[in-house]
Amino acid sequence: MEERRKLLRQRVLKSAKIVYNRDHSVVDCMVRNISTNGAQLSLPNTLGIPPRFDLRLEADGQRLGCEVIWRHAQRIGVRFIGR
Q1: Which of 8, 18, 22, 30 is 20 to 30 Å from 49 at the Cα level?
Q2: What pLDDT is recorded for position 56?
Q3: C-alpha to C-alpha distance for 6 and 25, rounded to whole angstroms
């Protein structure tokens, strides 16, 4: 598999929430890896997750704007926006 990322990502296992619909919709997820530009998220099902959302990290409450770059049945790759 060819690596296309500009920055290497650090492997992590952090609890987070996908937040959208003006904070009315929240989906639990796990951050599997992360860099300053993006992350890979793991969740039970990616259906219904919009192309843009906020990612709220549970450990520190940090909130990051995200744009979906790719998606599979239970994983999403995102790029951070508004940084």
Answers
A1: 8
A2: 97
A3: 31
